[in-house]
Amino acid sequence: MLRITDDIAIADWELTETFSRASGPGGQNVNKVSTAVELRFEAERSPNLSPPVKSRLKRLAGRRWTLDGAVVIRAEETRSQARNRELARERLAELIRAALVAPKRRIATRPTAGSERRRLKAKAARGEVKGLRGKITDEE
Fold first, then answer.
1. What is the pLDDT of residues 16-25, one digit of tens each?
2. Which residues of 62-85 are buried (b: 16+ CB within 10 A; e: fewer)?
3. Model confidence pTM above 0.85
4. 92/20 Cα distance (integer angstroms)
C-alpha cells in the first residue's frame, strides 16, 4: 500500500516491481546484484484516481506513460535495492500529487489603453526601421 494523500492510497495489485542490474558505481556488486528498480503503476485501471487526474498524470508522465496506460519509473541511483525501491515509490507519489492539483483557469482581461498605445507606437517605430532598409537609389 502506497499512501499518496490522506484520501488516496495505491493498492499493491496496482504496482509491479522488477529488478535488474544497474549501470554506474557498485564495485564488484554491479555485475552480480540486481539493484535497479523498475516500478510500474497501472494508472489507467486504478479505481483511486478520477479521469481528470488520470489525464493530468498522463501529460505529466510524458514518455514514462506506456500505450497500455501504465506509468513506468526506473530508479538506479544507489547501490541498495531497498533504497532504490523507496526512491521509485517517492517519485511516483510526487508525480501523482502533482497530477492531483487542478490548474487554475485563466481569466481573460483586456489590455489597458496605455499598453495598447505603447504597443502600436513600438510597432510603428519597428516598421519605419524596416522600411529604411530598402535599396538606396541615386536621386541627383
1. 888 988 776 6
2. eebbeeeebbbbbbbebbebeebb
3. no
4. 19
